[in-house]
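REVIEWER CHECKLIST
Item 1: Sequence provided? yes
Item 2: Single chain? yes
Item 3: Sequence as submitted:
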Amino acid sequence: MIRVATVPYAHPYLDAVLPTDVERVGPPPPPTDPWAPSPWLDPAYLTAHADEVDVVHLHFGFDHMTPDEVLAWTEAVRRSQVALVVTVHDLRNPHHSTRERHDRHLAALLGAAEVVLTLTEGAADEVAERFSRSCIVVPHPGLVTPLPDVGREPRLVGVHLKSLRTNLLDPLDVVRAAASGAVSGGGRLRVDVHDDVDLDARVPGLREGAEAGEYELQVHPRFDDRELTAYLQTLAVSVLPHRFGTHSGWLEACRDVGTRVVAPTCGHYADQWDDVVLYGNDEVRGLDAGSLTAAVLVAVTRPWPPRADPAWRAEQRTQLRRVHDHVYGRVAADRARA
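Item 4: Structure as written out by the authors:
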């Protein structure tokens, strides 16, 4: 049985694609800190435990490392004779204000990886152009099961600002443009934000717009999995308010429950689902507010997309596990012969 250490140890995406006939090597993170950095990212730990693993598969969870630390880690991987597989989820890190740090991370990781995977053809083309590496494309699996007791509100548009992370567009610009499109289409806009945000300091004017009746504002704790599914299922349209990014698990959850997505032209969101409605935005030129209003209007007045077929999602997951099983077998065999 092939022994695989995934980084991070567990995540819904990893659970969906990891083959059932491989051994997932720990240790898991402590229950009190599920996002604690993986010990496998420590060169000393990797070197000391290299004989306990055949493949290290890095997905994400290396934000805390400097580019030099990532480079040192890849050198330890080479010395350890452990096969490295990398899945490129993000070509532009949503938590970094500039792209240089993540670009250097990727340059080091992709230079050391035996095999590189990514989620869309567009991202594979970008990886080939920027890093001279070919990728195996493995589409994002479905992770959400629709709830039988939750209905949809026709023409309800949602913008979830979460905790105002780094890649968020100017919140007021997004909200005003989306509200205009929703109202023009006979609908309304709901704006959500986590309650760990000092909203009056971070987004002055947002509460006033809600009080004036321009949109509904909901401030609340982070959703658990069921609450998030119910929220997405209630919406007709979900707007991704991203200033930059690459792929989106949120988009796939919307696809699972049949909620249309309005997404920016940056990244490769439209490659994930052909029903996505795009609006103009990139990191250099910024938001085209008029195109966002138009995109919301189009999205809210179209017939609802169907939910992702559960049988298709199940077959997709089976195929993804086969691909990963093949990759692990190949790189482990190559390492054994080296």
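Item 5: Key structural point noted by reviewer: The longest strand covers residues 188-194.
Item 6: Recommendation: ____
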